[in-house]
Amino acid sequence: MKVLITGANRGIGAALDVALQARGDAVLATARNATGYLPLDVTDPASHHALAKQLDGQAIDLLVCNAGVYLDKGQRLTVELLGQSMMAGRVSHIQRQIPRRIARR
């Protein structure tokens, strides 16, 4: 199975990446600013477009929307920030991935 994981560079996303690869799945791991991962900032529509273009033609069996907000630089948690990372970013990313799932069927 081919799995795309957002926010795969730490926490649950990183653990899921390791577990899925251990069982033999092909994992496409994304992260906002981490070496060794496909670049994806779920709050940036341009980043969604770039990833969709990079993955063009690849079928995805499972999309794990794990990316979130990590407040490690003194940022303030706001409704706007939550909305961008938890809702708007995920909806935009899913919209880019749906054609791959439909085409595969």
The radius of gyration is 14 Å
Q: What are the secondary-structure elements, in order, as H or E? A: EHEEHEH
Structural class: alpha/beta
What is the oligomer described by this structure? Answer: single chain
User: How far from one another are the termini?
Assistant: 14 Å
Helix content range: 40-55%
Globular, elongated, flat, extended or rod-shaped: what is the shape? globular
Number of helices: 3
- Report strand %: 5-15%
Low-confidence stretches: none
Number of strands: 4
- Main-sheet strand order equals 3-2-1-4
Mean pLDDT reading:
80
How would you sum up the major sheet? 4 strands, parallel
Give the key terms.
single chain, 105 residues, alpha/beta, 4-stranded parallel β-sheet, 3 helices, 46% helix, globular
Give an overview in words.
The two termini are 14 Å apart. The model has no long low-confidence stretch (mean pLDDT 80). The protein has three helices and four strands; from the N terminus they run E-H-E-E-H-E-H. It has a four-stranded parallel beta sheet, with helices on one face. By secondary structure, the protein is α/β, with parallel strands linked by helices. Helix 2 packs parallel to helix 3.
Task: Quickly describe the structure.
This protein has 3 helices and 4 strands; from the N terminus they run βαββαβα. By secondary structure, the chain is of the alpha/beta class.
Give the helix/strand layout.
Blueprint: E1 2-5, H1 11-22, E2 26-31, E3 38-39, H2 45-54, E4 62-64, H3 79-104
Parallel strand pairs: 1-2, 1-4, 2-3
